Amino acid sequence: MSEKLGDKHKLLIFINLMITGISTSMLATAMTTALPPVVDYFKIDMTLGQWMTSGYSLAMGIVMPLTAFIVKRIPTRTLYIAGILCFIIGELACILALDFGIMMVGRVLQALGNGVLTSMGQVIILSMYPPQKKGTMMGWYGLAATAAPIIAPTIAGVLVDTVGWKYIFVYTMGIMLVSLVMSFINFSNVLDLQDITFDVFSFVLSIAAFGGITLGVGNIGSHGLISPQSGLPLIIGILGAVLFVLRQLKLDKAFLDILILKNKTYSLAVISSMLLYLVMMGTSVLMPLYVQSVLGYSAVVSAFVMLPGSVATALINPLAGRIYDRMGIKNLFVIGSICLLISNAGMYFVTLSTPLIVAAVLNVIRNVSIGCLMMPLLTWGTSQVAKEKVADASTLLTALRTVAGSIGSAVFVAVMSAVSISSQASYGNAAAMHGVNVAFVSMSISTLCMVGIALFGIKKQK
């Protein structure tokens, strides 16, 4: 159906996707900077409060497998507008929230809308444009997918210290309302529909798998691994994942085609994207905690520490897309993963007396890496599967990396907290700083795996 769209029409749809992506992506990480004041506002502890970010990722991970089905059954325009409305209702709930429960309901609604919109946006771009333009267009789309969530803490910090954290939702809702109007005017039914039947059992199993694993890991920080709160959800999640896979293998038309993982190149893209998100989302939570909770600076200072990295991502994303179109993934992957390793390992040597600019420079290096890797990995992975499988490939990769991000934000905060507590006697006032150091060492191990894949797992071709 995309062949019937003119270049101008494609551009208008692409602009619409970009505007939507800016709003949805901002709220994926904006609450990390606002976490301390939100925790104070609702009078809850930090472990519960961090579920505003990890719970958001969890809900997105749950809805994304469903998206692979509904994009094949519901007209593109109708589904896209429904996703925007769901997101707006979620923002309104957070603005009006008087207790943390309502706040979480709003965050879940935002995540459900974002899960649909993010999956659709990627599939639409990959379907509308020919292979020689996919990298470039996905690179520009990456401005919303990577620059927006990275710059969000900067904007959120200014809003928190001036007008209050609820205005984060007010301003992003304004952006989304613009996108809603544009969708009614410009959007078309871009994707072809398929005659497939909804498998309720597969959907239930996907909820158990994605939800159980992420919930279990998220509870480790407050309850420990050997506890009903962590162990039981993990067992349910792992069992659900096994049954989900077995179910898909038996169906004539799978709810989510996992057989595409047999493609070695696609599998490497999935694993690499999961490792990237594990680190990226963990960093998005740890950096504000380091600046505000460990060093005692304000949210505005925390925001401006992260601002140079946001600018770097904005500059590198479109360039990375062009490089991918011309040279393939190999060089981007090698350079990006090594830079990511340097930025994470460098945080181990940061102390309480280290100038704050050092952390800001390391954050720039980290965000250059993210810009080099995030969209090119997705484009590279989905380019290896048949056209009719692009929705499944994009959805599966995005769902798995989102869950990995949720795990990363929970696990690395848990590592930081556990090390800080256990090292009080040895490190005294520097115990919290030592916790941050060790958390970044943990990230470096994940990043080292990415370097290995880049150097030894990929041939020098697209």
Topology:
Layout: H1 7-42, H2 46-49, H3 51-73, H4 76-96, H5 100-128, H6 131-162, H7 167-186, H8 200-223, H9 228-250, H10 264-294, H11 299-327, H12 330-346, H13 356-382, H14 390-422, H15 424-427, H16 431-456
How would you sum up the global shape?
Answer: globular
The CATH topology of the largest domain is Growth Hormone, Chain: A
Query: What is the count of DSSP helices, taking H or I runs of 4+ residues?
Result: 16
Mean pLDDT: 85
Q: Low-confidence parts, pLDDT < 50 over ≥5 residues?
A: none
Radius of gyration: 21 Å
By DSSP, the count of extended strands is 0
Indicate the proportion of strand residues. under 5%
* Main beta sheet strand tally, sense and closure: none
CATH architecture of the largest domain: Up-down Bundle
Q: What is the count of structural domains?
A: 2
CATH superfamily of the largest domain: MFS general substrate transporter like domains
Describe it.
The chain is built from 16 helices and no strands. Helix 1 packs antiparallel against helix 3 (51-73), helix 6 (131-162) runs antiparallel to helix 11 (299-327) and helix 14 runs antiparallel to helix 16. The chain is globular and about 65 Å long. The protein is mainly α.
